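Dear colleague,

Thank you for sharing your sequence with our group. We've completed the structure prediction you requested, and as agreed, I am returning the results in plain text so they can be pasted directly into your records. Please verify that the sequence below matches your submission; if there's any discrepancy, let me know and we will rerun it promptly.
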Amino acid sequence: MNKILYIDDAPSMRKLVEMVLGSQFDLTLCEDGAQALEAIRKEKFEVIISDVNMPVMNGLDFLALARKEPNYKFTPILMMTTEASREMKDRGKALGATGWIVKPFDPAKLASIINKVL
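Please find the predicted structure tokens below.
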């Protein structure tokens, strides 16, 4: 079973993603980028999905630091956020984001997006 890391400060979003993906993937949940950075230093994930706006460490800062980790230079990292501006997407792409999913997302399509990047 593929290991997925999902990062979001909203408990409701973590619960929704767990309901949508929990039966198909080995899912680990984190509340912010700092927690997620600790997690990726302890184990290897095949795909990472991260919110952008979070306390402690936001998703873009996490993305930049994750890409510096030897095991995560090429791992698919998807940003899932309410941020939909071209400028924000361009920043994410420049930092190494594999893709951008705008919330609210279609739960039925989330697993297929993950399978596509795997």
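Summary note from our side: The longest helix spans residues 11-21.

Kind regards,
the structure core
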